[in-house]
């Protein structure tokens, strides 16, 4: 059975383990369907197991589109040859949802479904190299995330939108404020930053950062998360009450993310500094953090709130890093509040 290599029993080692766990959320809707199919095939009814099987089915259904059905995919090209997979559904005030590192739009689906059902237009897309989007030839950087978001906003003719980003998706929005501020001013109405950070996610020394990138870019991590004990590697990104289906989705989808993409964006996040850029944000901004977030800790949220003029802080008690999965109701409520202004 493959396992993660042993790490030094130090603060750096623990942070590397957490970073490795975050990379577990990966893939897209197709991968979600594989997880659901695999889970259902494993859930063979036996005496006294009906309630367990029903609970598992309900958990998986909560992660999907439900009665809305899987929306069609739209493709948006970028100048360097990447193709971004985009989903545009619903009618009403527009919300755009960039997703986290090593993830896909699938992590936003529970929130997106609630928004569509409550009368909103939702635009989701897979970040380059994630899910159904291709990598392109440009170097993987924080700035390229802003350029990709710009391409999506322009292609879908998005204006007056609430931009709500989770983790690296939040960095995408803050990168837009830093590198393409005119786009944010022209097309945004409000900003919601969910479990994210504006300054370097360093794991310590240059050696430690190289080691982290090598680990995250290794197939060993993929094998470990796909193993029977895979849940234990992603447990740290959730709060006090993790749901089995969410952890299984997280670890299984990880394998569909190109290891080089995981490593490339990890390196980019280790050196980013968006603080000067976000100090210029002139839109209502909400920062949401889980009290038990071990990846982008509450201190990171405090830093953003103190930097962005007029920003408002929301702390979800007992929650971890994966807030769109852990508490989609609370996240949806804050997005709707931002829509209403």
Give the DSSP E fraction (strand runs of 2 or more residues).
Answer: 5-15%
Instruction: Return residue spans where pLDDT drops below 50 for at least 5 consecutive residues.
Output: 1-48
Tell me the Rg in angstroms: 19 Å
- The helix content, as a percent range, equals 40-55%
The arrangement of helices and strands along the chain is: HHHEEEHEHEHHEHHHHHHEHEHH
Whole-Å distance between the termini?
52 Å
| Strand arrangement, major sheet | 1-2-4-3-5-6-7-8
Main beta sheet: 8 strands, mixed
Indicate the structural class: alpha/beta
Name the overall outline: globular
Total helical segments: 16
DSSP, total strands: 8
Average pLDDT for all residues: 85
Report on the structure:
This protein has helices at residues 11-22, 29-42, 50-63, 109-117, 142-155, 168-179, 181-187, 206-216, 219-226, 231-234, 244-254, 259-271, 275-278, 298-307, 323-326, 328-340, and strands at 74-77, 83-89, 94-97, 121-125, 161-166, 188-194, 285-290, 312-316. α1 runs parallel beside α8, α4 crosses α16 (328-340) and α6 (168-179) crosses α7 (181-187). The protein is globular, with a radius of gyration of 19 Å. 47% of the residues lie in helices and 13% in strands. Residues 1-48 have low confidence and may be disordered. With 341 residues, the protein is of the alpha/beta class. An 8-stranded mixed beta sheet has the order 1-2-4-3-5-6-7-8, sandwiched between helices.
């Amino acid at each position: 059975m493959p396992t993660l290599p042993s790490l030094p029993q130090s603060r750096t080692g623990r942070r590397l383990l957490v970073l490795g766990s975050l990379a577990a959320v990966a893939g897209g809707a197709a991968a979600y369907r594989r997880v659901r199919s695999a889970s259902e095939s494993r859930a063979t009814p036996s005496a006294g197991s009906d309630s367990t099987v029903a609970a598992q089915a309900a958990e998986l259904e909560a992660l999907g589109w439900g009665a809305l059905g899987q929306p069609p995919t739209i493709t948006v090209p970028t100048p360097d040859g990447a193709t971004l997979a985009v989903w545009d559904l619903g009618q009403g005030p527009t919300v755009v949802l960039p997703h986290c590192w090593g993830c896909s739009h699938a992590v936003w689906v529970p929130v997106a479904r609630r928004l569509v059902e409550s009368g909103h237009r939702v635009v989701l897309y897979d970040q380059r190299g994630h899910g159904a989007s291709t990598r392109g030839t440009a170097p993987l950087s924080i700035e390229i995330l802003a350029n990709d978001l710009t391409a999506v906003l322009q292609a879908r003719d998005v204006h007056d939108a609430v931009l709500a980003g989770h983790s690296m998706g939040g960095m995408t929005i803050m990168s837009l404020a830093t590198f393409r501020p005119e786009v944010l001013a022209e097309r945004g109405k409000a900003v919601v930053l969910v479990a994210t950070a504006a300054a370097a996610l360093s794991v310590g020394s240059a050696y430690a950062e190289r080691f982290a990138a090598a680990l995250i870019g290794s197939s060993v991590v993929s094998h470990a998360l796909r193993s029977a004990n895979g849940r234990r590697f992603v447990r740290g990104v959730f709060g006090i009450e993790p749901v089995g289906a969410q952890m299984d989705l997280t670890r299984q989808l990880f394998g569909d993310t190109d290891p080089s993409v995981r490593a490339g964006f990890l390196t980019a996040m280790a050196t980013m500094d968006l603080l000067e850029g976000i100090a210029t944000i002139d839109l209502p901004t909400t920062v949401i953090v889980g009290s038990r977030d071990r990846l982008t800790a509450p201190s990171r949220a405090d830093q953003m709130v103190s930097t962005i003029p007029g920003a408002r802080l929301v702390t979800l008690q007992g929650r971890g890093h994966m807030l769109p999965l852990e508490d989609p109701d609370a996240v949806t409520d804050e997005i709707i509040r931002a829509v209403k202004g």
